Amino acid sequence: MNRKPEGTLLLFAAAGIISTFFLDFAEAKPNRILSGLKLGSFKFLGIYAGILVLVFAVVIVSSVLRDGKIRHMISGMAASAGIAVLLLSVGPMAGLAIPAGTSPRITISSGIYITLLCLYIILGTSMRRLKGHRTLKLVLAAVAALPALFAVASGSYSDLSIMKEYQVKKSQFAGNLETHLFLSFGSTLAAAVIAMPFGYLAYKKPTLEGKIMTPMAFFETIPTLSLFGILMVPLGYLGTIGIFKAIGVSGIGWAPAFIALTLYGLLPIARNTLAGFKNVDAGVVEAAEGMGMGKGRVLWRIELPLAFPVIFAGIRVALVQAIGGAVLAGLVGGGGLGSFVFLGLAEASSDLVLLGVIPIVLMTLTGDSLMKAAVKRLEIGGAV
User: Fold this and answer.
1) Residue 24's beta-bridge partner residues?
2) Does domain 170-383 have CATH number 1.10.3720.10?
3) Residue whose C-alpha is closest to residue 355's, from 182, 154, 184, 152
4) Which secondary-structure segment (H or E) carries 26?
5) How far is the C-alpha of 275 from the C-alpha of 278, rounded, in Å?
6) Has this prediction a pTM greater than 0.90?
7) CB neighbours of 171 closer than 8 A, spacing ≥ 6?
8) How far is residue 235's CA from residue 255's CA, in Å, rounded to a whole number?
9) What confidence tens digit (pLDDT) does each residue in 257-304 have?
10) Which of 49, 62, 179, 297 has the fewest CB atoms inside 10 Å of its own CB, making it the most exposed?
11) How confident is the model over 143-181, as pLDDT tens digits?
């Protein structure tokens, strides 16, 4: 029995109420650049804004309940319902906000993003602190995630400015998304292939640890754009040589971005590889050797499986770092979702910026959550 109020629930429920009452939820603009009529939550969403206030009120009341289990069940269900209401109501209400005979752009404003953030934090806090109830957690997660997919698939968001930007850039979006995934996952894989052997070498030969880790740490100190500039000259030269020219290596484009992201991923993976092998119980290794296992078998059958959860945690850090860093590829002609971000900044189009930013945020959150779950599963497997 937990008798203390849940501070996180109180804080973000209060923030959600403030956001609902005082921040703009949408803006009806005559075009993608000019300012337009700002709409508060009640003017834009009508009765649905009242439901959001009720949801946050329920969370505040539940946060002071003595029974922690009931507290988090109620707050989680309320937050999940609030997310569904908000995501499903935005599209239809955007259509109603457009005056008859006109075609302004309905741009989502900060109030909706902040309110959604508060609801997701409340939901995440409740799910994390609610022990057991796996089925309930899956239902809450589905209720919070599926409405957005349904709204997009059904065309409910078609009146939103960001969807109009998507329709204009649709032919480019898939290619830039593919490039962003290639830069992020490809560079992380390349970094893992390079860094893991070096991390293991630093473990086997402690005298080499400084010589291995210091150059990798040095790359982390170089600003991304500066590293792009450093790589332009050698890559420009390599681009004149047969095989490199054939795969599109040049001073600008995907190559400098890919190499820079790979270099940034080396340190977290190598450092975790070293830490992972150091954490392997020496007694287990000695027992395996005493049973007649050779060094190679000990490495592949004993040390690597036990060290891999820590190594994988380093790969997770490198991947999240790469997904965000790949944005800057748009500045050197490397493509990716960063192209929309910088084009939107140049054209003063916030919706075009969001067309690049929102998928990046979703990729980061999804990738981090999946890999975090994989790390936990590996740790449990290793413990067993």
Assistant:
1) 40
2) yes
3) 152
4) strand 24-29
5) 5
6) no
7) none
8) 8
9) 899 999 999 999 999 999 999 988 888 878 877 787 877 888 888 888
10) 297
11) 998 998 898 888 888 888 888 888 888 889 989 999 999
